[in-house]
Amino acid sequence: MEQDYDRSFTLFYNPAFIICWFAIVIFLLAAPMENLHKGRSDPGWACIIPIYNVYIMLKIVGKPWWWLLLMLIPFVNIIYAIWMTNMLSKSFEG
Predict the structure, then answer these.
(1) What range defines the domain where residue 34 resides?
(2) Between helices 76-91 and 50-61, what is the axis angle to 10°?
(3) Dihedral-angle region of residue 4 (phi above 0 means left; psi in -120 to 50 means alpha; beta otherwise)
(4) Is-contact 34 52, C-beta < 8 A?
């Protein structure tokens, strides 16, 4: 019994799928860039670099750099990420 592997990946070659995928990727890159522009005058590319973007967000909410080390500890990072997101939303309130 031979399987047809070419038919299983035809969705990914569909132009409508590719356009929708690029639209989602652009939105997911533009949203953090907007947070960086509102919070500080940091460049927008800072949200693409994995650990540096957390450091910049910590600077926006006014927390020390060692919180970044806490964000690298499993399970502790969930609590601190929720806390940082809450402080980030409060810093844009007024």
Answers:
(1) 5-91
(2) 50
(3) beta
(4) no
Q: One-letter amino acid identity for 46? A: A
Question: Which of 69, 93, 62, 74 has its CA nearest to residue 84?
Answer: 62
In three-state form (DSSP H/G/I as H, E/B as E, the rest C), the secondary structure along 30-72 is HHHHHHHHHHCCCCHHHHCCHHHHHHHHHHHHCCCCCHHHHCC
Q: Total structural domains in the chain? A: 1
Residue-level pLDDT, tens digit, the chain, 94 residues: 556 566 666 667 788 888 999 999 999 888 888 877 776 667 778 888 888 888 888 888 889 999 999 989 999 999 999 998 898 888 877 6
User: Is 14 in a helix, a strand, or coil?
Assistant: coil
